[in-house]
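Worked example 3. Consider a protein that binds flavin-adenine dinucleotide.
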Amino acid sequence: MCSMIKEAADALVRTGIKFSENELMSGHTSFKIGGAADVFVCPENVMQITRAVEIAKKYELPFTVIGNGSNVLVSDLGIEGMVICLERMNGFETDGCSVIAESGALLSKVAMLCARNSLTGMEFAAGIPGSVGGAVYMNAGAYGGEMKNIVKSITALHNDKIEVFLTEKCDFKYRHSIFSDGGYIILSVEFELKNGNENEIRAQMKELAMRRREKQPLEYPSAGSTFKRPEGNFAGTLIQQAGLKGYSVGGAQVSEKHAGFVINKGGATCADVLSLIEHIKAEVFRISGVALEEEVRVVGKKA
Ligand SMILES: Cc1cc2nc3c(=O)[nH]c(=O)nc-3n(C[C@H](O)[C@H](O)[C@H](O)COP(=O)(O)OP(=O)(O)OC[C@H]3O[C@@H](n4cnc5c(N)ncnc54)[C@H](O)[C@@H]3O)c2cc1C
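Given these inputs, the predicted complex is written out as structure tokens:
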């Protein structure tokens, strides 16, 4: 593996793609957790993404895509092979009621562009700290809105080909899309919005941001809701009913403010978070019979 990494790094140098070796993932995740990625690549355009993928395949390195790292829990042992981080693929523009955004663009910035152009529909997403690609992958949603309601088409790299997927072909469900089944790199997304009133759009965003600040432990690193919402219930309520508010393992804690969030209280490791998650699942199941399922994506080397 070591010699393959060295050869892949040499090949990347020749392409001019920005990359680093042994990059700590704790610096690229909202949880502030994660060991080193062997090779951490930051392509700036589609050509650089396809080159990076070619190099990964040629030197037999597994590759992992990340956007803004706000829904991932990375192993303390790091990530084997190549991490393709799309934060530098972050352009976006409007065309009438359409917005076209590269996958690494932050939802918050795209939502502000919509507000400036009096386009309504993206208010719900303004406070979700993810990238456009990560949000489509997860079918992110909040306050009654979901990505699937505003996405018109997605351009993705799939089986070495660039393909366009219309929304109806994406199997969007609660926190799921065909992209979350693996094998795709989302390159850009076209959103379809509606004409609205700028002041009303901004007021709605402000109101939702206030609700987030009141309810969520935004002062601590986390990956947002740790678990998916079980049908007819709320993960936070079930965790609270199991008496686990404030329960901790090492530096990982069930937030006192919102039991649906596992937070990094300071120095938490991936192992701490995973063992807390297992404890929560077991206790909630024992008390309520509900099997919680993780929303956060666990990536990297297995211990
Ligand atoms: C404080 C806080 C609040 C949050 N609130 C919400 C909320 O209200 N609603 C909600 O739905 N989520 C919420 N989240 C979770 C998270 O922000 C969303 O899931 C977001 O959409 C993830 O985007 P990302 O770019 O950070 O993805 P990442 O965390 O980087 O990646 C998530 C998954 O998507 C894959 N991925 C990312 N980009 C691509 C791409 N371009 N192509 C292919 N695969 C890709 C990754 O491989 C990974 O499996 C919250 C998180 C935090 C920390």
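Take a moment to read the result before moving on. The chain has a mean pLDDT of 97. The first helix runs from residue 2 to 15.
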